[in-house]
Amino acid sequence: MPEFVTEHRLNILLALILLGGPLVAHYADEPFLVTLATRATILALAGVGLNIALGLGGLVSFGHAAFFGLGGYAVGILASHHQNYEPLMTSPFVINGTNQMLVLWLVAIIVSGLAALVIGALSLRTSGVYFIMITLAFAQMIYYFAISWPAYGGEDGLSIYVRNAFPGVNTLRPLDFFLLCYAVLIVVLIAQWKMTGARFGIALQAVRQNEGRVAALGLSPYKIRLAAFVISGMVTGLAGALYADLNRFVSPSMMSWHLSGEIMVFIILGGVARLFGPVVGACLFVLFEHAFGSVTEHWQFFLGAALLAVVLFARGGFIGLVAGRVRHD
Amino acid sequence: MTEPVLALSGLSKSFGALKVTDGVELDLRPGEIHALIGPNGAGKSSLIKLVAGELTADAGSIRFDGREISDLDQIERARLGLTRTFQVSSLIPEFSARGNVMFAAQARRRSIFGFFRQVSRDRELIDEAMAALDRVGLASRASVRVSELSHGEKRLLEIAMALAMRPRIFLMDEPMAGLGHEGSQKLIGFLDQLRSEAPILLIEHDMDAVFQLADRISVLVAGKIIARGNADEIRNDPEVRTAYLGEDAA
After folding, report:
1. Closest residue of A to B143, CA-based?
2. CATH code for position B14
3. Facing B94 at nearest CB: one of A191, A195, A328
4. Which residues pair with A198 in a beta bridge?
5. Distance between CA atoms of A67 and A73, rounded to whole angstroms?
6. Of the candidates B165, B196, B221, which is a domain's last residue?
7. How far is Cα A274 from Cα A149, in angstroms, rounded to an integer?
8. Confidence bin at B123 (pLDDT 50/70/90)
């Protein structure tokens, strides 16, 4: 499988570039660029989450910002209780806030996973355009709920005064926090890579290509899709948790439909269903934003042009352009 | 007489005013090939879909192994061992031939929640898939992507997937369609042996195949069974000749 080897090598190269860039920036004393790379890394992780549903499963979710935001709010809320020394609840038992990322991540994953379970269970009864619209509707519901809930900042959002802690890492240093986010991204990518070739990934890809055949073989397409949607939501939720700590701030805008669209754009730019598709897409997005954003506030015009070019001339996105078609065995 | 594995009685299905299945009585006994023939639009494929659970009957019963299965959905029926092949090949286009059969073998195990062990190194699935491909003569094409297989090869791959399901009964919807003479002859030889593994309910347009293979033949016209018997009886049935074999048999 020569093409696979090419994509594999390309992926390793891309992973090294994403690691090397911020290291160079750090030693060149450009902490802002390190933060920029961190942002790209976290957005990439959100895209990796969506890519599991959209790329592997063919589930065009237009509501993934909901999971991103829920992951962010899980961190924001627990951290704010920790800052203010007031427990989250006192009866029937006491739950305190925390500033430990490992705990916060776990909570973010659980919260977004549960939300994906509920949203998925209802949305997956539909397909096509209806699925796109219903996922959007759920995300908007959660968005407006966050806006109208004054306890945690409402429309103004919620600040995290000090970045949360990770054992053995000084998360306040930009490079350390970047490396932490990068490590999370790589671990998730390896897990996704393994999953794609394992029984679950095979079943999910089969459902995308021929649902009727999967049912005729006695497997439930609904169950497979729901599991994929939950995993997808969890990964995007974890990205939201990191994003909250990057900005030390969460707000309802994390859940807006713009963000759902942006996450989708990462995947299309980089290559749908390709392991590193969202990574490339998110990096290109952040670079575009940085490069053209300083020139004109209409930088998204150029992003739109790039997106159009990809859709018209390079259906496999960046990865497809460089590494060719997807191979399966 | 042996108990039938599958027994349909009073099975009916309408789409609006159109009765596609009208009080069908039919059974399938161990070790037999029961062919279902009839002109285009007679409702043969609909009947297979009713049995497989892709369509839900309006009335009547479907008994499998003496158990009523009308209320089970397609997935549950597939798990009981009713395995269907499709009139138009229904495969996973981006997988290789082996990948398709391996997936069928995986489906038989009802295994979806495997996240780490790579299927490409799963000896059990690979061996099973290769054995099934070998039986239909596709072993040398195992690693070819489905979208690059010929029409005839796709037909055979359908059969290989069904084999990997180790069914209790086969529901075959025109397996010979588009195979050509040589291909059909090979498949006829293969199905002839296959009936001892599991009985086959066979829809087929190729009359040579039907007359060579079928232990019993049921003739479906406008949703109704109008005749049933062995090859000779059907060939000489005047009603069948006018309704169906008309031009062919003249």
Report:
1. A329
2. 3.40.50.300
3. A328
4. B118
5. 10
6. B165
7. 38
8. very high
- Whether B86 is in a domain gets the answer no
Q: What is the pLDDT of residues A239-269, one digit of tens each?
A: 999 999 999 999 999 999 999 999 999 999 9
State the helix-helix crossing angle for A101-123 and A64-83, rounded to 10 degrees: 150
State whether A202 and B99 contact (CB < 8 Å): yes
Fold classified for A2-323: ABC transporter involved in vitamin B12 uptake, BtuC (1.10.3470)
Taking the Cβ of residue B108 and every Cβ of chain A, the question of whether any pair is shorter than 8 Å is answered with yes
Where would I find the H helices in A149-293? 174-197, 199-209, 211-216, 221-247, 257-270, 277-293
How far off is chain B from A70, nearest CA to CA, in Å?
25
Question: Considering only CB atoms, which chain B residues are within 8 Å of A201?
Answer: 115
Tell me whether residues B114 and A198 touch, CB distance under 8 A: yes
The reply to whether B239 and B130 lie within a common domain is no
Q: Which domain holds residue B53?
A: 1-81+167-250
Beta strand B216-221 with B224-229 is antiparallel
Q: Name the residue ranges covered by the structural domains of chain A.
A: 2-323
Of the partner residues A200, A205, A219, the one whose CB lies closest to the CB of residue B115: A200
User: How many domains, chain B?
Assistant: 2
**Residue A293 tokens, joined:** 């954003």
- pTM, whole model, 2 decimals? 0.94
> Among B149, B165, B181, which residue terminates a domain?
B165
Give me Rg for the CA atoms of chain B.
18
> Same domain, yes or no, for B161 and B181?
no
Contact B26, B210 (CB under 8 A): no
Please tell me whether residues B244 and B175 are part of one structural domain. yes
> Which helix H or strand E contains A91, and what residues bound it?
none
Name residue B97's amino acid.
A
Q: What pLDDT digit, counting tens, does each position of A103-153 carry?
A: 999 999 999 999 999 999 999 999 999 999 999 999 999 999 999 998 898
Peptide bond into B93 cis (omega under 30): no
B7 plus B77 within the same structural domain: yes
Nearest chain A Cα distance for residue B207, angstroms: 27
* Shared domain check, B16 and B45: yes
Q: What is the pLDDT of residue A150?
A: 87
Whether the CB-CB separation of A229 and A116 falls below 8 Å is answered with yes
Contacts of residue A213 in chain B, CB cutoff 8 Å?
Answer: 86, 90-92
pLDDT band at A4 (very low <50, low <70, confident <90, very high): low
For A157, left (φ over 0), alpha (ψ -120 to 50), or beta?
left
Q: Tell me which residues of chain A have a C-beta less than 8 Å from any C-beta of chain B.
A: 191, 194-195, 197-203, 205-206, 209-210, 212-220, 223-224, 227, 326, 328-329
**Is B87 within a domain?**
no
